[in-house]
Amino acid sequence: MNIKERGGKGEESAKSTRADKGESGTLTKVHIYGITRATSAHTKDGGSLDGEIVGIFRFPRTCGSTDSVRFSRVPLCPAVPAVLLPPATHCHSLIPRHLRTVSGSFQLWHTALSLCIMRPCPVPDDEAYGKDDNNRPGQLYFSNGLSFDYYDGGQEPSKLNEEQKRSALANVPSLLEVIGFSYFYGGFLVGPQFTLRSYQRLVKGELTDCPGQPPNSVIPAMKRFSLGLLCLVIYAIFSPHYPDSYYLTDEYDAQPFWYRCVFILLWAKVILYKYVSCWVIAEGVCILSGLGYNGLGQNGEHQWDACANMKVWTFETTPLFTGTIASFNINTNAWVARHVFKRLKFLGNKLLSQVTALAFLAIWHGTHSGYLLCFSMEFIIVNVERQAQALVRDSPLLTRLANSPLYPLIYLVQQFIHWLFMGYPLVPFCLFTYDKWLRVYSSIYFCGHIFFFTLYLGIPYLRKVLVPRKERSEKKED
Asked: Helices 407-431 and 447-466, interaxial angle, to 10°?
């Protein structure tokens, strides 16, 4: 273990923690299937240590300890191989499949939440602590998806949809398969999400445009790499001019209202290039390996979009919030739809299923209030936009206006509103804590909340004015 003293009596205290001498320091150990690994160290004098964690799990400090230990952040290895699948191999006839799935998923969530809630507090002078610490959610997507696919493999085929049939696992995969799947270099840090069945097909050499030969994937992969590199250059050039920290300065507060709003718009546009560049480059890696091969298209051309996580052109040109969501982080959205939203059919309420799925995403990212506010705003914005689209579609006047020569001007107004209020929920997502995002929202007078709640309450009255009575009656009958 690589240990460095951060407090206490300095170097002498650090030496006291050496396990081979058995001196005053104590080591917390983790026992995983006969493997014992040292995970943290504490000194008697109250000093705090840094430790490089080895083993399958990264655990927080020992409960009840008064020491302040800060661990290096490393990707959380999936809990499923350590908790669910190996014992399932040996106890297959003793534990029902659904209990193994529930047990594994529960322990997975327990571990993840304990890491979020019990992890050591940040060092006060470390402003960057917690920034972009999203490797846990990415790893947990793989693990929880694997649990669901394993559960589906034990169901009657008639109970599964086509998507579930393609990903269902009839047998318990080996530990080597699970580790290879979870740590596949093309996706284990930032995605994209893919199923173990797809990974198994890749290993067998089935994902290729030339049967029996390596895929001709260099050119499609380089196209995505080049696009991702362009987005990365844009982010590298402009991000220093739009830092998150500027929101918390007196200079930002002193700017006029319109400037504060425009800054949010431009900041959101720039900050998202960070994610776009990572996902597009990672997609190129998946294409190069063959995992991105998606068979033949309608015109007989080979497709390489099986791991596409971004539709960059749609992302740049759509004036709709739903269009941006549909083109951004595609695989994760599909994962949530497949494993959360569609499995909530028993609720009998699509709106409730949507709320639950977004709450799942908020908790999945972490325990900060900013995540919950971001996804709750997404729910409000998306539903208001759908009501507005229905109003335009049902109103002859608004339909003619949308198809008139004035549409380019309307499009520019739409894009301004679109990107302004795309940035609005991103503020709490990136600032995390309520004291920070509340300061920013107060400086712009909660304009996003006022705008969308006003539309939500006003659209029903606009329908009475702009939609003919006949159209309204037909809508009610439908």
From this structure: 140
Name the average pLDDT for the chain.
76
Give the pairing of strands 26-32 and 35-42. antiparallel
Asked if the model's pLDDT at residue 129 lies above 50, the reply is no
- Residue 29 has φ and ψ, to the nearest 5°, of -115, 150
Q: Is the pLDDT of residue 409 over 90?
A: yes
The per-residue pLDDT for 157 is 86
339 is catalytic: no
Sequence ranges of the domains in the chain: 1-74, 75-183, 213-310, 312-478
Decide: 78 and 178 in contact? Cβ < 8 Å.
Answer: yes
Mean pLDDT of 198-217: 90
Q: What is the mean pLDDT of residues 378-382?
A: 94
- Helical segments of 28-174, H only: 79, 85-90, 97-118, 135-152, 162-167
> DSSP secondary structure string, 349-372?
-HHHHHHHHHHHHHHHH-S-HHHH
What are the CB-based long-range contacts (under 8 Å, 24+) for 296-304? 302/209, 302/216, 304/217, 304/220, 304/221
CB contact set of 230 (below 8 Å; sequence gap of 6+): none
Give the residue, 314 or 5, on which the prediction is more confident: 314
Estimate to the nearest angstrom the gap between the alpha carbon of 404 and the chain centroid: 39
Q: What is the pLDDT of residues 244-301, one digit of tens each?
A: 999 999 999 999 999 999 999 999 999 999 999 999 999 999 999 999 999 888 888 8
**Quick check: is 365 catalytic?**
yes
- Residue 192 phi, psi dihedral angles, 5° rounding: -75, 165
DSSP secondary structure of 89-107: HHSTTTS-HHHHHHHHHHH
The residue annotated as part of the active site, out of 42, 339, 365, 418, is 365
Residues 201, 31: Cα–Cα separation, whole Å: 34
Q: Is residue 82 scored above 80 in pLDDT?
A: no
User: Pick from 27, 13, 23, 34: which is nearest to 59 by CA?
Assistant: 27
As a whole number of angstroms, the distance between CA 209 and CA 303 comes to 9
Q: Which residue has the tokens 């793989």?
A: 142
Query: Which of 309, 329, 331, 333 is an active site residue?
Result: 329
